[in-house]
Fold these 4 entries.
Entry 1:
Amino acid sequence: MTVTPIFCDPLWVSVCCKNEVCALCGQQANAKVIEVIQPDDPFSSRRAMTGYLCANHFLQLMGPSAVMAVEEYRNGLLCDNEC
Ligand SMILES: [Zn+2]
């Protein structure tokens, strides 16, 4: 699957991602991904795994619906600013 790099100029990066790099490509991280441990996990008391991803790898992880949602959001922002 190819994801269009729509976050070339990110609007916002959380302070939690400052000085963090994407685990897959080494670029500035834009998203912190945290595992949700389900109550029926046989080791539910363990610490959740976390990782950092750049925006494009985050969208690859989340899939096409995330890409569409972000595009709709950004188009809405552009319309709000230009209309
Ligand atoms: Zn990346």
Entry 2:
Amino acid sequence: MKCSLVLLIVSVIIASTFGDPHDLPEYAEKRYHLEPFFKTNWFKAMQYCHSKGMRLITIASKEEQRNIENFARESDLGDESFWTSGTSLGDQVFYWFDSGKKITFTNWINGEPNDFDSDRKCIEILNETDFKWNDCSCFDNNKRVICEENV
Ligand SMILES: [Ca+2]
């Protein structure tokens, strides 16, 4: 009896010290994968992530933005741009392709999106602009791919 009481007290102390392991911020629930060997267009990027059982990145909050920035910086690739799953293909507004959700949190470069010729329907993030967003042609072949999955 004494032993189980001590065990219970220790359990409560551990739980209150370390918290519930499921109670993590949203950004901590994703794992990222950077493809270091090729650059490609948005469609191939999407296909590549799906082939790995992952998704092209979605940035739904400030925390996710910061997490992806840190991840991309750690890759140490220098000035690069990276595809996100953000697009306005088939729509008049930008949405996250994999979740189908309208984009609410944004981090555009000043003056963006500038879709004046209706040809810039996919969202890239650029190292050189502190990972702010730009709408560009989905057919640009010069961007890197970051995939994500839930953990
Ligand atoms: Ca643009």
Entry 3:
Amino acid sequence: MATFNEKKTCSQRMENFGRFVWNPDTSEFMGRTFAKWVYISLYYAAFYVIMVGIFALSIYSLMQTLSPYVPDYQDELKSPGVTLRPDPYGDEVIELFYNMADNKTYLPLVTSLCEFLPVYNKSVQEKMNANCSDHTRISCAHQNENTKSCQFTTDMLGNCSWEHDHTFGYKSGKPCLFIKMNRIINFVPGNKTAPLVNCSAENGELGDVQYYPGNDTYGTIGLQYFPYCGKKMQPNYTNPLVAVKLLNPTLNKELSVVCKVSGHGITSDNPHDPYEGKVSFKLKIENKPLSSSAN
Ligand SMILES: *[C@@H]1O[C@H](CO)[C@@H](O)[C@H](O)[C@H]1NC(C)=O
Ligand SMILES: *[C@@H]1O[C@H](CO)[C@@H](O)[C@H](O)[C@H]1NC(C)=O
Ligand SMILES: *[C@@H]1O[C@H](CO)[C@@H](O)[C@H](O)[C@H]1NC(C)=O
Ligand SMILES: *[C@@H]1O[C@H](CO)[C@@H](O)[C@H](O)[C@H]1NC(C)=O
Ligand SMILES: *[C@@H]1O[C@H](CO)[C@@H](O)[C@H](O)[C@H]1NC(C)=O
Ligand SMILES: *[C@@H]1O[C@H](CO)[C@@H](O)[C@H](O)[C@H]1NC(C)=O
Ligand SMILES: *[C@@H]1O[C@H](CO)[C@@H](O)[C@H](O)[C@H]1NC(C)=O
Ligand SMILES: *[C@@H]1O[C@H](CO)[C@@H](O)[C@H](O)[C@H]1NC(C)=O
């Protein structure tokens, strides 16, 4: 390679490059003859076809092992989370503060409920779901795309329905809160007894509570809503609710309220997930008449 370090003029370099691109002596294009180019192109074409084939085959065989009904990798948590409505701002820390004398302060809360509840309208539910009065239990083992879910209708919300009170009690300082347990596919809580909901604040400051469905001690989440078999099997599933009506909460004071769902298979003491099995929030209901001069 003695020639390698030789100084070459620019035109010599250009000539060398030109010969590399097309060498008329050997009929080579870019260092290969036409036949070799055809050969190498076919080689790479075949190579990539086989690579794509192997990739497609492995994806296909993986898909064969997946059920369309149940996700193979569910969230590792086994105990459901609990959420609260109204939650107009979707915040991590839920603060329900309002002044019952000032409708502007509770309008966002009432509006958020009005947006959330229409799916439970009786006529909507009757179209979507079964009334489950025959107590048939759903089994996720029968992978049927048209599995009926059970109705949950606003008449089960008793005095917390919009029909009973268009402000859900916010105006009168007896607000309704709605508790909802998150769905977990194939999860059946309670070991044959319905999970219970219980809300409390320190020193009994929450006052008397009425639960719908339920009584004045506990709300109940009916077992007919379990298990949930996934979106493909139960496209119309709607989460059951428990409405919590506060009948005489302490006014003008910030309360720390905890609503807990209890039942077999539901844990609420996970230090890493404060919303597992329970929901905590701050509640402050003021009753400060707006002075007409202070507009
Ligand atoms: C709120 O209250 C004011 C005065 O009491 C009333 O004029 C207004 O119409 C109310 N707004 C709503 C949305 O109810
Ligand atoms: C429920 O739906 C019916 C008809 O679809 C409607 O007339 C009724 O006002 C609705 N009720 C509520 C509370 O939205
Ligand atoms: C879901 O609801 C629609 C009406 O909204 C109904 O036509 C359909 O049959 C329902 N599907 C199931 C599986 O119940
Ligand atoms: C539930 O549906 C069944 C038939 O599907 C009907 O006979 C029964 O009256 C319904 N019950 C209620 C409470 O609507
Ligand atoms: C609903 O509220 C009314 C008063 O507004 C009361 O008489 C009735 O007992 C309540 N119903 C239930 C089921 O708590
Ligand atoms: C469910 O409750 C029954 C008694 O009612 C008990 O024998 C059984 O062990 C319980 N099952 C589980 C999984 O705890
Ligand atoms: C509700 O739960 C609280 C603790 O969160 C407990 O002190 C209270 O006794 C429970 N109430 C009922 C009726 O079980
Ligand atoms: C309220 O309901 C719970 C659960 O269903 C039950 O254990 C309790 O005895 C009921 N309390 C009253 C006062 O009816």
Entry 4:
Amino acid sequence: MEYNVQPSKKSTGRRSFLRKGLAVGGAGAIGAALVVKGFPALAAHGSSSLTQGDVAILRVLAALETIETDLWQQYNELGGIQDNEIPGVLGGSGNAAYTKALQNLDMDMPQYIHDNTDDEFSHFTFLNAYLVSKGAEQVNLDQFRTLPSSQATGARQIGRLTNLMQLTVDTSWWTRYRSDAKNPDFGDTFPQAVPDLAEGQHPAIPRSDADTTSTDHIQAIANTAAFHFGFIEENGTSLYPALAQRVTNREVLRILLSIGPSETMHFQVWHDKAGAAVSPPFNVKDPQKPDLVFPDLSAANDDFKANLIMPEPTIFLSRTFPKVSIIRPTETEGAAMGAFNGFAADGLFRGQSPAFFAFLRELAEQADAAQHGG
Ligand SMILES: [Fe+2]
Ligand SMILES: [Fe+2]
């Protein structure tokens, strides 16, 4: 496996490590630090050390955060606030029809999309900088930015990592958090909030300006996005606590425990916003896709009702315990591969190269092999 690292930054990190290593531990410490596969046992900062497993967990998170950033960037170019806080956005026009449809769900959608994008940038940038500070390799997916951009007004014409134009959106996160008797960690499955989105392929951004001429059609695209936002951030919400259970270094644990809940804050917002996509009058029928229906869940039963957005207490660890309000799932076994496979099943990687899948799978496998204390 060949990692695509940025040599200049990596060597800077190594030099900086060597300087600090000499200062605190002398030459012997440096020798001990440079272990197999470039994963140092001794850290650059203080006396804390990263295990190979810690590095693998940070690397898969850096990769998945880079992927998240790529997709949020596309949403932001078309439906977010255009400012210079996010690289490459200043001067962007946005897409008026798409933005309007998103604002039908909530007037503040452009702000939330912008801020979620900003957060994802910070997640992968921080994780990579931390890896470099420890003499470990950062993750750079630039070679895989090969997928086409939307042709709609507002989208930059650059290579993308993700495809938001042919999604198959799992909307079962909606019912998973409403159930008071089931938990995915017990093998339970959950019905779809919008069954039509979980089959076939659906754009979550306008593919071209032709997608913006019918108000019901662009509303259906915005509604698809609203459920996709929840899917993405729900994934991160589970991934961090799942992987944290196998971290060894306390500072790395602190990183996971500090970034993870920001994913949950995103998820909670999107969970609320998606409610408007399944409530009148914006639970539209798409005239161009008569088989895509957004049901009216505004007054549905408790397993579906739109405003029941707080996690319902449910079974956890053992059925003998009292029900508890929790993130679900948090099973640590296979968590990284599960997140990657979830993104793949979502259609995010339609059109990606075999090399991309191989690279990501290897990162996930390495992270899933990490053992606490190992
Ligand atoms: Fe993130
Ligand atoms: Fe996220």
